[in-house]
Amino acid sequence: MRIVRSGQLKIIFILTGVNILIMAALTYLSPTFMTYGNITAVMTRMSELGMLAIAETIVLIGGGFDISIGAVMALSGAVLGTLHVMGVPFYLSIIIALAAGIAVGLLNAVLVVNLRLTPFIVTLATMAIVRSVVYALLKGNVLTELPEAFLNLYYVYVFKLPLLFVILVATAVIMAIMLKKTILGRRIFAIGGNEKTAYVSGVYVKRIRYFVYCLSGFICALAGLLFTVRIRAVIPDAGLNAPLEVITAVLIGGTTIYGGKGSILGSLLGILAMYLLLNGFSLLGLNPFWEVIILGVILIVVIGQEGIIKSFRAPFVRTRA
Amino acid sequence: MISIGKVSKSFPGVKALDDISFTIQYGEVHGLVGENGAGKSTLIKILSGIYPQYEGNIVFDGSVRHFYSAHEAQTGGIATIFQELTVIKELSVAENIFLGREPTRRLGMLDWSVMRDKSNEVLQFLDTPLDPRETVGKLSVANQQIVEICKALVLNSRIIIMDEPTSSLTEHEVDQLFITIRRLKEKGITILYVSHKIEEIFEICDSITVLRDGKHIGTVEKTETSPDEVISMMVGRSMNMMFPPRSAKKGGLLLSVRDLSRIGEFEHVSFDLHEGEIIGFAGLIGAGRTELARALFGATALDTGEIGLYGDRIDHFAHPNDALSRGVAYLSEDRKGEGLMLELSVRENMSLPILKKISPYFFVQGARERELVQSYISKFKIRMTSIDQIVESLSGGNQQKVIISKLLLTESKVFIFDEPTRGIDVGAKYEIYKIMNDLTLEGKGIIFISSELPEVLGVSDRIFCMREGELVQEFTRDEAEPEKVMKVLAAGENLTGGDAA
Q1: CATH value at residue A175
Q2: Can you tell me the ipTM of this complex?
Q3: Which of A288, B106, B474, B477 has its CA 20 to 30 A from that of A168?
Q4: What confidence category does residue A304 fall into, taking pLDDT thresholds of 50, 70 and 90?
């Protein structure tokens, strides 16, 4: 089964190479890196941003943009915690938390599709609104009053792998199959590739956009639940840096901001590289705040690279046009 | 004179130009023709400094000149007006004309009065009454082109290269452009006129150079050649018949359209389409033909009217998907904007409308998809390295064949082809006429929209003339003589500077 499209293969190879290189270097530099405890810790830690990266990849492939991802992640945790404190049955709280994510996705979709606003502006606005709702719900406090059984999911392992990571991988596989093997996935690529062409080819463009934003909201809400389990609390600042980190990783992974191109595998390899670096920093006693700076630089380099590659390619293509 | 001596240029895997030598006399309009991929664009780019690396030399003003950038070529006296205009739409006419070399006063302040006066001067010379203060984006494409020509004049260019200058102009605007070109010629400016359109070349050029597959086939004086000869030089085979003979028989009624209107675009349009029939819609750009086609197909909403399909009455299609599922397919005039997903593969482009049909349950049946796509690729001999190749890297003609295959895969009965041969070479055009012909032999009906009169007349069984949103006259194939049809199309026109663009 081809998981990625042929043009992406190179990026996947490069990223796999980069990951192996980082791991080799860290194994050499730090004796604790290649231990079961450390590796599973990295896996657990990358789970929620990995989920956000999946959501962002799908939205970008569909020619959209979503920077409300981190805020939605915080929202689902905040809704879950608040409802639990209010005495709502826990399973119902989970359902409502996930529904809250879908609701934000729906709002994004309405604004983008029906009011024809730019996705960047729309999700920038909803990001701010949702974040304020989170602060209001939590009154700015950290909430730790959650059922033990839920929090203890952190210690569940499936085939020696942490459950949170397994959920990430399962979501990634399902979504990759959705994108690559189903009609729906094809149509997402199609509207990202050229919305107008898709429309005159009979694709219900609006419906697909609705689906994509709602799916993103749902996956981000799920990420919020994973995050709550991981840090055993609901915090108002959850996912504050997520848009930068996630979009960087996704773009490094070969998804473009122009739509119609990208892969979930690439995005996750990008996230993995990021977390390996972060892990390395802490193992080697370096200041982790450097990570954000490095990310910013990488982002510019990656986008720059894309431009450079295009400028090489363009003259050749044009002569044959 | 400008002599191009033994110029060659290679790209990885392709020899785009192979030992080209010919000369252009000063003060003439020199036509450069050739099919797509013949090397015309490459040659233009070398002359205009965009490709600084090439073999051979270009002699100009008695010395070898080698331009290393577009800027150098411009200051050296060669201006190029590309098919995709390079005006900045947000700026005014004067600002565009003087872009990059604005006259300044002390402290680097712009000298607006000089800019305005000089702009007026060149505009007057070209007999185009444009206001230098007008924003360029508000002008018609034809006038934007004039702004580019003014730019070249202000630079004191001696040679102006025009790349497919008429591709988005109406017939009336083309005439205007030719007047402008003659004026430039009187002033002693040399023009290298690059075009697909043989009739135009013969109307405006003094001599003609033909390229084919990167080679120089010949340079001839217009008076010593004929269109047939030039076409056969271009395609390397004789093309006595530009259009395949029509042999399909008219069958039952497929589509009947009654009183369709969409306010501001077209009004009270009624016509019928039968099996085995090609009906042509002739008209100037902006006559409302594309708008009609899109509304008929369900891409935009109708205000009034009804559509009958295979004897059933339906009000209208609410979405393109309704039309496709009832066997009506539409080929857009805008190949890149609406026909293709450039970054996606040939396979994904072609199978998009039929995904549902070939996929029971949710999952795309990959093997079936490949088989279907492959069958059309072999049928139409679409040149590509793999069906997973990105569509952007195909030539225009092959891209168009991909779109047509996509439509044929839907097994529709009614096809609306809107400018299917725009911007593709003569050989590929003929193949598309042939595909249309074969479709009618299978009993399908085709609505054919084209702005090139010869092809509408050459391909259609009946011709509808559309003018200012109305169907004004119908001709049968035998009645339709070019002059008669053109007279109908252009009669009573009140073109307001071609604001349709």
Answers
A1: 1.10.3470
A2: 0.80
A3: A288
A4: low
